[in-house]
Amino acid sequence: MTLTSEDLYLNRARFVMKYLGVWVPHPNETFAHKCYRIFMMTVQYLFLFFQIIYIVLVWGDLGAVSQASYLLFTQACLCLKITVFQINADVVKDLLERMNSDIFKPQNEDHERILKWHAARIKRLLLAFMISSQTTCGLWALKPLFDDAGSRNFPFDMWMPVRPEYSPQYELGYLFQLVTICISAYMYFGVDSVALSMVIFGCAQIDIIKDKILSIKTFEDKGQISKKLAKYLETNYNKLIECVKQHQGVVTFTRLVEDAYHTFLLFQLIGSVGLICMSALRILVVDWRSMQFASIVTYLSVMISQLFVSCWCGHELTATSDELNTVLYKCAWYDQDMKFKRALVFVMMRMSKPMVLRAGHYVTLSRQTFVTILRTSYSYFAVLNQTIKD
């Protein structure tokens, strides 16, 4: 295999995050690169700080607060994600080394095909997320030009140290908001790609384990007791032990992924409920022919799709690992020696428990969780909407 697993799964995320200066720092990181990384993160925190100031200034105005709250949550989530990523840089390095370790390397073309198939699936979903998020940023940038034609307004309602009535303050403020939000979207894509691609990499390794287990076949010449048969049985036993070691490696790997990213996954799940409610409220009061309406709809779809991808990855990990016990039973265990059968009993007991990915070490990420969040969001939205009408 010409590409390493890291290149196969994380090449896009690594390129984007290196370009933005927030990838895992090199041990011999230069002073200039360190300053660039600090600058890029400071800009994101500054953007969040301006939004908080605006929320404080307009507090009490439900319309203004709801209009600014979804962007506030998005930026707060981004700042948390990139901070967690930087704090856990050593853990990320460990995960990258594990991805390229010998135990996870493909041994034949079928294993390479499994790795590429899983990588292509998650890359397509994340690419669609990146394109849709940049489209939303473009609609936000066009809002002042269409909805507020003739006036000088910034794309986002937030406090700014410059005044739109004066030039070049207006141009500089406009450029700051547009460039910063586009960078935020790319950082979002980068951090999510690293976390979720690692989860799908774990799913690919489980499928490789299944392929190895099913390769345990019956010895063709059963009537001949020879050294060849003994060697064949010993090879099958070693193959089973290899699958056990690989499975333990996957369990440890996915546990490290959860430990590294569970914080912002929980924040994202909890905040999604309020975000969907606020965005839906804005859709009800905004003119459907306006650019703002289109931007809110696309933003809401992007956030829901991001939530779905996270829950889908967790569901895939659980569903894929849940099949291991059945696959073990499908191998030719009945034609193996007693040593193999005794080991198989313990292996089946250990692999009977499916792996799960949890946000905050508490909420299991699955399709059921995704549906529950949507239902909860709709319930809160219905209550808020009825309260406003009354």
Automatic annotation (TrEMBL):
Claim: Transmembrane is one of the keywords in the record: yes
Keywords: Cell membrane, Membrane, Olfaction, Receptor, Sensory transduction, Transducer, Transmembrane, Transmembrane helix
Organism in which the protein naturally occurs: Parnassius mnemosyne (clouded apollo)
Any one of the GO CC terms: plasma membrane
Protein name: Odorant receptor
GO biological process, one term: signal transduction
Domain of life: Eukaryota
Family, per entry: Belongs to the insect chemoreceptor superfamily. Heteromeric odorant receptor channel (TC 1.A.69) family.
InterPro entries noted in UniProt: 7tm6_olfct_rcpt
UniProt GO MF annotations: odorant binding; olfactory receptor activity
Keyword Cell membrane set for record: yes
Transmembrane segment boundaries: 43-62, 172-191, 264-285
Bilayer topology: Multi-pass membrane protein
Subcellular location: Cell membrane
Pfam families named among the record's database cross-references: 7tm_6
